[in-house]
């Protein structure tokens, strides 16, 4: 018998509805004040530090963390609501998103107390931006081929090497990175990598922007030359980063950002089509909405399992696998249907601009944060095939 | 766009009011009496850890009397009578009929879990149809008779008319298991609105047909047929409500069949050797099976979510329509993609009548057609979304 997949029909609890209203009102106010334009999805390289602070003031960062670190001890499902509302509104979340989703939880689990007390409250206030230092020029999906070295020195480590495709490194205050502290062993090629907290904007780190096919510069090359990391910035076990990576994947892979990245083109298509669609448009929209609804139900279900303390790694990988393929295909399906939109539709230009951007964005969606191929490998393992 | 809200609200109120402690005792007793040795089932999925004795009862009966391999090798159909008898004795076909109308009074949720299980076994007897018929009759407080039943119409495009003299006219196509049914539960429209009627199957003309899965899918013609009983449908109940309920039933069955297709495909890939290794070790095969798992998961999530929406909602609105229509659309799409992968993994052996794969794959494909196809519901859902307007799409999707 294969491992049974579970996607229980989780409903958001009533407290989420009040929260959702508050988030929508907040975002409407921000839009009215000109902080961002919800019709302009090309926000990827937009840094909005003031917006980030205001989100923190509302208590929407570090929502699930302990209060002693500035957190709010709310549920994953409440965090889910905030995340999806921000994503759908095309809010500029770049500054806080990684810290809130991923880096904070890693620090909570592995950082020494004084570092937690120092950094976590600042994440909660929306003051600090994090990057993730995983990929290297010759080590992408094959994480354990990383070569950037951390050499033991007095009171810490000296870092030498290069990380690449590092989103937000140009604005980040910190990076959580894996560096090689020992060579791999014959028995375990995953051995020898250690997770570190890295303070950016210091001597010994050079950040070089890399242009993307969308015309943006949101990822970077990060070169370390004799960069010093103190001992207390090591996160978790030395040589044991491989043990620490997997449980975080469920958080990273199943969120609303894994199927809503290009959602805006669907809204714009519905606007362009108007209240009385022809049969072809109606059918096309209906199929897309059915997919969207199903993806969300799956994603909420995984959030519910996380809230219940489970580690639904395979389910989360399935959500990211089919969710990212859906958001990748969405602009192309909308383009199919847009061919039938009236020439004089008032939002025609907006739709075309959005489509152009979404189609250029689409290829990365099935690569970042775990490629389709890696995910299917994880699912296959869960099925007992490897 | 027909408004399903009011219709199903009424249906729901009735259904939720069903007492369901009685059936558990009844079924538990019957299980103990009749199914002493039926605990060897291997389909250990969600239901194995089910808190639900009704689903467990069903699963035990299916495992004992509806084993795919046994049925597939049985050329005379001798498996059918004992299976139906065991189902009848357990009270499962009338799960959704309250005690005082002759049924078992199980909850909607319990009945839905029976349908998931029936899908996992690609069950080829009119259990879902009898359950739906009993449910439809109960909407008008019509007692359910013993024996197999089905419902008409089974397509959103067919209409049955209630004439002024109390007889029924019209034609319903693609009615599942009509030939096997003793009675038909009918939703008909007359001058004073919709009525629900119980009709003797011997009184109608039935042209036998076969669906993709090899199960009966018949054309039923009503030529001034006098029903056994006719009562007005509850206020707000309409054909959309019936089609959505039937569609959710089929969605659960499809999701169940996909779970089994995934299971037997994984097992086969771990047995079959080619190029000197198990085919499960080939990355191309692994990725195909991972995709099948994704389709199976999507179908399961969509179908169980819609079933949960019916079972637990207190009001029926656009969000409910979104749930039920999406389930039928997404499960039907998953049936297409999933069945193709399951067959691809099996190669030629899966294309033979001797192999059990087709029992699941063809039924999942056939179930797409009942109670409105995915393209029908996609058009309806698209119209609803367009009518609400672009800025109301996200609030609809995020409403639960």
Description:
The complex is a heterodimer of chains A (386) and B (400). By secondary structure, chain A is of the alpha+beta class. Chain A has eleven helices and eight strands. In chain A, helix 7 packs parallel to helix 9, helix 7 packs antiparallel against helix 10 and helix 9 packs across helix 11. The longest helix of chain A is centred in the C-terminal third of the chain and has 29 residues. The two termini of chain A are 15 Å apart. In chain B, strands 1-4-5-8 form a four-stranded mixed β-sheet, with helices on one face. Chain B is globular and about 75 Å long. Chain B has 13 helices and ten strands. Helix content of chain B is 51%, strand content 13%. Chains A and B meet through helix 3, helix 7, helix 8, helix 9 and helix 11 of A and helix 8, helix 9, helix 10, helix 12 and helix 13 of B.
For the termini of chain A, the CA-CA separation is 15 Å
Find the biggest chain interface.
A-B, 60 and 63 residues
The assigned structural class of chain B equals alpha+beta
Helical proportion of chain B?
40-55%
Output mean pLDDT of chain B.
89
Oligomer: heterodimer
Q: In what range is the share of β-strand residues of chain B?
A: 5-15%
Order of helices and strands of chain A: HHHHHEEEEEEEEHHHHHH
Tertiary shape of chain A: globular
Main sheet strand line-up of chain A: 1-4-5-8
What are the segments of chain B in which pLDDT stays under 50 over at least 5 consecutive residues? 1-25, 28-51
Query: How many distinct helices of chain A?
Result: 11
Shape of chain B: globular
Proportion of strand residues of chain A = 5-15%
Largest sheet of chain B: 4 strands, mixed
Q: In angstroms, what is the radius of gyration of chain B?
A: 21 Å
Strands ordered across the widest β-sheet of chain B: 1-4-5-8
Summarize model confidence as the mean pLDDT of chain A: 94
Counted by DSSP, the helix tally of chain B is 13
Distance between the termini of chain B: 22 Å
The counted number of beta strands of chain A is 8
């Amino acid at each position: 018998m294969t491992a049974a997949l579970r996607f229980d029909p989780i409903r958001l609890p009533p407290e989420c509805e009040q929260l959702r209203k508050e988030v929508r009102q907040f975002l409407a106010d921000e839009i009215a004040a000109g902080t961002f334009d919800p019709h302009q999805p090309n926000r990827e390289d937009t840094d909005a530090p003031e917006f980030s602070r205001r989100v923190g003031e509302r208590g929407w960062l570090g929502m699930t963390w302990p209060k002693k670190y500035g957190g709010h001890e709310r549920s994953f499902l409440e965090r889910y609501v905030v995340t999806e509302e921000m994503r759908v509104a095309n809010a500029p979340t770049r500054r806080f998103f990684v810290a809130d989703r991923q880096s904070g939880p890693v620090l909570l689990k592995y950082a020494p107390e004084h570092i937690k007390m120092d950094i976590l409250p600042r994440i909660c206030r929306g003051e600090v931006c994090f990057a993730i230092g995983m990929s290297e020029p010759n080590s992408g999906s094959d994480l354990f081929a990383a070569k950037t070295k951390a050499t033991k020195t007095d009171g810490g480590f000296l870092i030498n090497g290069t990380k690449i495709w590092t989103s937000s490194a140009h604005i980040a205050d910190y990076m959580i990175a894996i560096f090689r502290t020992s060579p791999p062993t014959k028995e375990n090629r995953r051995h020898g990598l250690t997770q570190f907290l890295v303070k950016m904007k210091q001597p010994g780190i050079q950040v070089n922007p890399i242009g993307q096919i969308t015309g943006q510069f949101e990822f970077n090359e990060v070169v370390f030359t004799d960069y010093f990391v103190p001992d207390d910035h090591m996160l978790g076990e030395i040589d044991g980063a491989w043990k620490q990576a997997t449980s975080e994947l469920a958080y990273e892979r199943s969120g609303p950002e894994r199927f809503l990245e290009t959602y805006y083109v669907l809204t714009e298509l519905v606007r362009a089509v108007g209240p009385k669609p022809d049969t072809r448009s109606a059918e096309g929209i209906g199929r897309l909405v059915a997919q969207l609804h199903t993806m969300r139900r799956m994603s909420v279900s995984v959030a519910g399992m996380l809230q219940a303390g489970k580690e639904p790694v395979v389910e989360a990988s399935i959500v990211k696998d089919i969710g990212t393929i859906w958001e990748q295909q969405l602009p192309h399906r909308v383009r199919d249907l847009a061919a039938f939109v009236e020439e004089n539709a008032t939002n025609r230009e907006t739709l075309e601009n959005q489509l152009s951007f979404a189609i250029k964005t689409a290829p990365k969606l099935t690569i970042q944060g775990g490629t389709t191929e890696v995910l299917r490998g994880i699912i296959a393992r869960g099925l007992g095939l490897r | 766009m027909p408004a399903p809200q009011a219709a199903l609200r009424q249906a729901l109120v009735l259904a939720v009011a069903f007492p369901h402690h009685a059936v558990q005792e009844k079924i538990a007793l019957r299980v103990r009496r009749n199914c002493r040795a039926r605990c060897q089932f291997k389909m250990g999925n969600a239901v194995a850890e089910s808190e639900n004795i009704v689903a467990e009862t069903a699963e035990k009966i299916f495992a004992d009397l509806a084993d795919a391999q046994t049925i597939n090798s049985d050329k005379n159909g001798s498996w059918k009578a004992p299976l139906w008898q065991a189902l009848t004795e357990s009270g499962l076909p009338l799960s959704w009929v309250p005690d005082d109308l002759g049924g078992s009074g199980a909850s909607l949720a319990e009945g839905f879990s029976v349908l998931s299980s029936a899908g996992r076994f690609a069950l080829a007897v009119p259990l879902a149809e009898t359950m739906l018929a009993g449910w439809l009759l109960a909407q008008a407080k019509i007692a359910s008779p013993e024996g197999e039943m089905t419902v008409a119409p089974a397509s959103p495009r067919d209409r049955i008319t209630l004439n002024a003299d109390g007889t029924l006219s019209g034609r319903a196509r693609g009615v599942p298991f009509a030939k096997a049914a003793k009675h038909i539960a009918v939703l008909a429209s007359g001058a004073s609105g919709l009525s629900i009627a119980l009709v003797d199957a011997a009184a109608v003309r039935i042209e036998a047909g076969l669906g993709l899965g090899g199960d009966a899918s018949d054309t039923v013609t009503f030529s001034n047929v006098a029903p056994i009983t006719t009562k007005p449908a509850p206020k707000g109940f309409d054909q959309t409500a019936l089609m959505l309920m039937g569609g959710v039933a089929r969605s659960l069955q499809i999701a169940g069949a996909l779970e089994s297709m995934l299971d037997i495909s994984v097992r086969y890939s771990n047995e079959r050797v080619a190029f000197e290794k198990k085919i499960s070790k080939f990355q191309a095969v692994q990725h195909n099976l991972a995709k099948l798992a994704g389709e199976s998961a999507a179908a399961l999530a969509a179908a169980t979510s819609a079933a949960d929406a019916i079972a637990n909602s207190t009001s029926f609105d656009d969000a409910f329509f979104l749930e039920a229509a999406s389930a039928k659309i997404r499960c039907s799409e998953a049936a297409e993609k999933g069945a193709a992968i399951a067959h691809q993994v099996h190669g030629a052996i899966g294309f033979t009548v001797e192999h059990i794969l087709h029992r699941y794959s063809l039924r999942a494909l056939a179930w797409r057609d009942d109670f409105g196809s995915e393209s029908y519901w996609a058009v309806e859902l698209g119209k609803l979304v367009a009518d609400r307007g672009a800025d109301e799409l996200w609030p609809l999707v995020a409403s639960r």
